[in-house]
Write a structure and sequence with these properties.
globular; 382 residues; binds flavin mononucleotide; five-stranded antiparallel sheet
Length: 382
């Protein structure tokens, strides 16, 4: 499967193409909109989320509620585009808007302007903006729908915001009811207070998102080649999310300080099946899923657009100048969790199709069933 996105933050809209989706997958716009809405929620978001009410239009690849095997093409319009028509016009305009030249430390402004030779940082901002993640979430919803057919469910929860930490529970109702996607009400309140304090100081906050996948089929990914190993593929996809800067699989960072005997997950057998007494590996061994829940955490840095900007420089003159200030979020960790679900779902759906075929959902399911029959029950006398 392939996932491509196009479109600018304040252009007419975003486009997603998901290529390689098997035919016969039940899919509706309403189902995709659920995740688009979840991405827009969360305490700490800026004014933009009050303007946009994201809804997908399916442009291709789906007919009468089922995928056809053709590329799935999705469009999410930018409602805000009407006020940006002159600034973002694809056609030349008589009176071009003033260029953005004050560079934001931590954003893509400087690196992008240098790389592409832009004199107006707007040409970088528009694509580096995480508005693009709406397109990823739309594509991820397609991947989630495919995973659900074989019983795999991807889920996320906020592990920390700033210094406030909370052990994930993956209590779906409690997480979705929390404005910061944290199941513990007291910790939620503390996270909200931390975001409010950062906002009052003209500052921003980051945090960590925990991801879990249940119902994982063992053997997704591959051991034989570096670029087929699933842990590496997951890391690439998750670290490509705007402001994602760190990742651990299972308990990686704690495990790095412990002994092997405390870290590795003993293997037992119950009712003719291999079982684990714990899951510190996060369900990945040798670049393949081992059948346990997949667990990975992603660290998101604090947002780089600061209402009290850091010292910086002007792109054109080099003169010292405070960084550009643009309408911005204060903390995006709750939304980032939904984006991370989408990226993880895409990698797993891709690995699923790779192992079981991707022409039709029926063929894929039959292939999964055959594989499950081969795996269980394990004949213990052998
Ligand atoms: C859901 C989400 C929303 C974001 N919103 C903003 C924002 O409002 N302002 C901002 O400066 N950065 C925001 N970011 C982060 C920037 O897009 C990101 O820092 C920038 O593209 C530079 O890329 P990098 O941080 O990955 O190096 C957001 C990130 C995510 C995941």
């Amino acid at each position: 499967m392939r996932l491509l996105t196009a479109g600018e933050s304040h252009g007419r809209g975003l486009v997603t193409v998901v290529d390689g989706v098997p035919a016969g997958l039940a899919l509706t716009a309403a189902e995709i909109d659920v995740d688009l809405r979840r991405r827009q929620l969360g305490y700490g978001r800026g004014a933009r989320q009050r303007i946009e009410r994201d809804a997908v239009v399916i442009l291709g690849g789906v007919r009468h509620g089922r995928t056809t095997g053709a590329p799935v093409a999705l469009q999410v319009a930018n409602r805000d585009a009407v006020s940006w028509e002159r600034v973002m016009s694809p056609e030349p305009v008589a009176d071009p808007p003033a260029a953005v030249t004050r560079l934001r430390p931590g954003h893509a402004d400087l690196a992008g302007a240098l790389k592409y030779g832009h004199e107006d940082v707007r040409d970088v901002i528009e694509r580096s903006s995480a508005r693009e993640t709406a397109a990823r979430v739309a594509g991820g919803a397609v991947a989630k729908a495919l995973l659900r057919v074989v019983g795999m469910e991807v889920w996320s929860e906020t592990r920390s915001i700033g210094e406030v930490e909370c052990e994930p529970t993956f209590d779906e109702a409690a997480v979705e009811a929390s404005e910061v996607r944290c199941a513990d009400p007291a910790k939620s309140a503390a996270m909200i207070a931390a975001i409010a304090a950062a906002r009052d100081a003209g500052d921003t906050l980051g945090g960590v998102v925990a991801l879990r996948v249940s119902g994982v089929i063992p053997g997704l990914g591959a051991v034989g080649q570096w670029d087929r190993r699933l842990d590496g593929r997951i890391a690439q996809a998750l670290l490509s999310i705007q402001s994602a800067k760190g990742l651990q699989v299972g308990d990686a960072f704690a495990a790095a300080r412990e002994r092997g005997s405390a870290v590795h997950d003993p293997i037992g057998v119950r009712d003719g099946r291999f079982v684990r007494e714990r899951n510190r590996a996060g369900g990945l061994e040798g670049g393949m899923t081992n059948g346990e829940d997949l667990r990975t955490d992603v660290a998101f840095k604090p947002i780089s657009t600061l209402m009290r900007p850091l010292p910086s420089a002007d792109l054109r003159t080099g003169a010292p100048s405070p960084a550009h200030v643009e309408r911005s979020d204060v903390c995006v960790v709750p939304a980032a969790g939904v984006v991370a679900e989408a990226m993880l779902a895409f990698v797993l759906a891709d690995a699923l199709c790779e192992k079981f075929g991707c022409d039709t959902v029926d063929d894929l399911c039959a292939s999964v069933e055959r594989y499950r029959t081969r795996l269980a029950p394990i004949d213990l006398r052998r």
